[in-house]
Design a protein that fits this description.
By secondary structure, the protein is mainly alpha-helical. It has 4 helices and 2 strands; from the N terminus they run H-H-H-E-E-H. The longest helix has 19 residues.
Length: 113
């Protein structure tokens, strides 16, 4: 059974999916800022990624360092099948809830959710 993700977890997982093979710390932060208008601190992101990995929602692998990164390795994230299932379960729950919000002046309309 899938669990519902918190907003930050959901956004991070979506950013990792969007970035594909380029899903490493700085790129994830940039994607969150660009697409969502906000991003956690790098320390908070690292902690969240560790938790997501402990839950089995992502895996990580280190790429070798390159001269343009000062020889430092880079941790690249991949969303697991379980992570994708939880993204979908959360998306569907939001859609079902959103569908029940009335279309009144000043309110959100379902097609905007």
């Amino acid at each position: 059974m899938a669990h519902f993700l918190g907003t930050t977890e959901y956004m991070i997982l979506l950013a990792v999916v969007r970035l594909g093979e380029e899903a490493y710390g700085a790129a994830i932060l940039d994607e969150l800022e660009r697409a969502a208008g906000r991003a956690p601190s790098s320390g908070s992101l690292s902690t969240a990624l560790d938790r997501l990995e402990e839950k089995g929602l992502v895996t990580s692998a280190y790429e070798e360092g390159t001269s343009d990164r000062g020889g430092r390795p880079r941790r690249v994230m991949t969303v697991t099948e379980r992570g994708r299932d939880e993204i979908e379960a959360t998306r569907m729950a939001f859609q079902r809830l959103r569908a029940g919000v009335p279309d009144a002046p000043g309110s959100l309309r379902p097609e905007e959710a």
